[in-house]
DNA sequence: TTTCCGCGTTGAGCCAAATCATCCCTCCGC
DNA sequence: GCGGAGGGATGATTTGGCTCAACGCGGAAA
């Protein structure tokens, strides 16, 4: 469920460092003036990540905020006995690290080779204070995340296994569409079956079985293990909302 | 988990309309100057609510935001076949209606006789724009809600029935403590067993059984059906986090 | 091309919580 | 105090998804 800032995309002068940034149209940067954007860019630090490489751990002091420009990340928290809940996946354009706490309450790891920009939280806070439009975008983004979190509570609290997987796939499809700006029928699964299971409150075996069920009902096709084609979007939506026939 | 604004409580001149407001110390109003606070007060409208009385319905145009000063509310969404997920309970001091959408994505109803202040969203947006400190408080509040939502995802996705009820009770206890400012051993349950079940992703029967289990383990005592005394807080915390013995 | 390793799939049996059924208790109104 | 209604508790049974186990397959390295 990507966040989409509002308002017109600021045009940049030739030679601006953010000129070719692939995610600018879909992040908080969208609304920034060339000058301010350059300030922000100078404040940031790019970090490349390999699959499974951690960005930060639960309990680390919350000294940085992040923006993903390439790849995919997962965010999760652990219970004492190893049970894990993935609370979200991050895709290019997503902004991360929003917290009032002194320590991160989650762990973040790369799913794929990724490029991540980080900002000192202290410097970023000053930047936000000096740029009310950024504060507004952050607030909107947080409100958006909150709405998404409520949807996920419905999924985790009340949906069946098949409904959870169908809902998740629709969300991934819609995210791809909002980024590309056109209707899509395919999407990637950059995470493992176990990651999906821990996001959906299921086991990896159940996820596998539900994939088989969606396939057998001709709602989707698995082009490869990590690429899905949606064959019957309306049917998938029906299943996601619990309108499905027995 | 109540939101607690930061910074010193603004002192008000005698005769200020918010002088005796019971929730000012625990809301976004805390940081407002007497003048600005009076503006906000003038913008607001008080509404009394009876138990089960709806405040708004899912799908209504999102034209108002709210602050609760007395009582308790529940927030829920429905699936097509009547399954219900309670996504939160509201207590005095809570602020509500934050959304970027044109329509509310949830329904709100009173649990108890309540007093609710509402503000036209349009007027409130203008007020926020004119008062950056309010925007900052709203952003912090949203970030706080987001952290709470992530905790609830862990609960719904990975905790057992007993752990869910124990976690919920600890949260209620902590909320009471943050409001009163001192250690508590008792708290109220203003909602029905069914409301609790729909919040915790369980059935009312299972909630009932888990209450009996917590009672039998001497972790809590039910003073009445809607008032709980915590007998063993550490034990309750252990159970909430899954550290419990078999 | 072959081999190997780990992820993914599929099957069998089990269990925690849901469902179904009944009873109880508390809180009203009279 | 009495009767009734509705929420809450408890017991019996069912079941969706988990656990445990075996196997398949695809991608990487040689």
How would you sum up this structure in a few lines?
2 copies of one chain form a homodimer. With 246 residues, chain A is of the alpha+beta class. Chain A has helices spanning 34-43, 121-130, 132-158, 161-180, 193-200, 204-216, 233-240, and strands at residues 45-49, 54-56, 64-70, 73-78, 84-90, 95-96, 107-110, 114-120, 186-188, 220-224, 227-230.
Major interchain interface with per-chain residue totals: A-B, 43 and 43 residues
Strand order of the largest sheet of chain A: 1-8-3-6
Helix/sheet category of chain A: alpha+beta
Basic shape of chain A:
globular
| Nearest-integer average pLDDT of chain A | 92
Please outline the major beta sheet of chain A.
Answer: 4 strands, antiparallel
Report the count of strand segments of chain A.
Answer: 11
Description:
The structure is a homodimer of 246-residue chains. Chain A has 246 residues and is α+β, with helices and mostly antiparallel strands. Chain A has 2 domains: 24-152, Jelly Rolls (Sandwich); 159-240, Orthogonal Bundle (Arc Repressor Mutant, subunit A). Chain A has helices at 34-43, 121-130, 132-158, 161-180, 193-200, 204-216, 233-240, and strands at 45-49, 54-56, 64-70, 73-78, 84-90, 95-96, 107-110, 114-120, 186-188, 220-224, 227-230. In chain A, the strands form 3 sheets. In chain A, strands 1-8-3-6 form a 4-stranded antiparallel β-sheet. Chain A has a 4-stranded antiparallel β-sheet with strand order 2-7-4-5. In chain A, strand 10 and strand 11 form a beta hairpin. The model of chain A has no long low-confidence stretch (mean pLDDT 92). Chain A binds chain B through residues 77, 79-81, 83-85, 87, 98-101, 105-106, 132, 135-136, 138-140, 142-147, 149-154, 156-159, 198-201, 241-243, and chain B through 77, 79-81, 83-85, 87, 98-101, 105-106, 132, 135-136, 138-140, 142-147, 149-154, 156-159, 198-201, 241-243. The structure holds a DNA duplex (30 and 30 nucleotides).
């Amino acid at each position: 469920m990507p966040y989409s800032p509002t308002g017109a995309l600021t045009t940049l002068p030739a030679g601006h460092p953010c000129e070719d940034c692939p995610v600018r149209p879909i992040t908080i940067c969208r609304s920034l003036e060339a000058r301010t954007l350059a300030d922000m860019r100078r404040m940031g630090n790019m970090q490349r990540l390999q699959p499974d490489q951690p960005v930060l751990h639960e309990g680390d002091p919350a000294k940085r905020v992040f923006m993903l420009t390439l790849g995919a990340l997962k965010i999760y928290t652990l219970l004492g006995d190893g049970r894990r809940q993935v609370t979200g996946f991050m895709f290019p354009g997503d902004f991360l690290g929003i917290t009032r706490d002194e320590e991160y309450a989650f762990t973040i790891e790369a799913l794929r080779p990724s490029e991540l920009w980080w900002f000192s939280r202290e410097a970023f806070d000053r930047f936000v204070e000096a740029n009310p439009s950024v504060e507004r975008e952050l607030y909107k983004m947080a409100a958006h995340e909150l709405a998404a979190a409520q949807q996920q509570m419905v999924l985790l609290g009340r949906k069946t296994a098949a409904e959870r997987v169908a809902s998740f796939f629709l969300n991934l499809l819609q995210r791809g569409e909002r980024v590309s700006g056109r209707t899509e029928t395919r999407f990637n699964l950059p995470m493992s079956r176990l990651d999906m299971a821990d996001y959906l409150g299921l086991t990896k075996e159940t996820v596998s079985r539900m994939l088989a069920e969606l396939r057998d009902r001709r709602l989707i096709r698995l082009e490869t293990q990590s690429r899905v084609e949606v064959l019957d979007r309306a049917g998938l939506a029906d299943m996601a909302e619990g309108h499905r026939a027995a």
